[in-house]
Amino acid sequence: MSEIKDLVSLSSRMMAAVRAIETQRPSGLFKDPLAALLAGEDIIAEITPGAQQYEDNGTPIVIVRTRFFDDFLMSNRCSIRQVVILGAGMDTRAFRLPWLTDTHIYELDRPEVLQYKTSVLVNIQTLCHRHLISVDIREPWVDKLIASGYQVEIPSVWLMEGFLYYLSEKEVHELLKIITQLSAQGSWLGADLINSYFVSKSTGELSQHWKYGCDEPEKLLSAYNWEASVLQAGDEGANYDRFTHKFQPRNVLDAPHYFFVKAMKGSRDPH
Prior knowledge:
By secondary structure, this protein is of the alpha/beta class. The chain has a single domain (59-265), classed as 3-Layer(aba) Sandwich (Rossmann fold), CATH 3.40.50. 37% of the residues lie in helices and 16% in strands. It is built from 10 helices and 7 strands. The protein has helices spanning 7-23, 35-39, 41-56, 61-75, 93-96, 111-120, 142-147, 169-182, 196-201, 217-222, and strands at residues 82-86, 104-109, 129-134, 157-160, 188-194, 226-232, 258-265. It has a 7-stranded mixed sheet. It is globular, with a radius of gyration of 18 Å.
């Protein structure tokens, strides 16, 4: 089995561990039967105390985020047949969600991440069509996506979960420019974003790799012709009776904010 050594890439197994723990809850927000395989017993044991602490603090962010974007993807299930997951990591939605059989899911991530994932899930089948594209998103990837069957002329859904804050501001804008060019009218994107305060104040081992904070997701996406709706984790529609911590109102800038974003591609040309 291939190994993942880079910490940011390894975090995908940590996220799988959190999903594995949630799957064991009788009243869990989702079931991910593959998460424990992808995480491994050692990572699950390492993550369990921290996951419980997040739960006790009313901030089970990975759990609520997973369910939020599950619901987002399923809301577009009948109308859109191609889904692109950037920084896919150990995402198992191609396997565990009830896609229509003519749906195509494109997973993009670093080669070592997808090699590890493939080595674990080698004999497991999906209902949909799953395409793996091994690439660092900072490198050219559009030609690989199109060569895998992606169709620019029909609507798509883009998912960037636990991803954008690892990019620089320049890389975020370049990525949004590319996504916009690849997206037909009626396409959707989903992403989570943290504000600039979060980036400047976080001191954790993983959060030290965070680079990009956004205080106004609607403004960011509007510049690229996406009409966004934004919730903070814990808001109605983004808590699932589990995320009980309340963030400060958004107009309080000197405080942490964690955003769940859904956006639809408009009809006008971006500036």
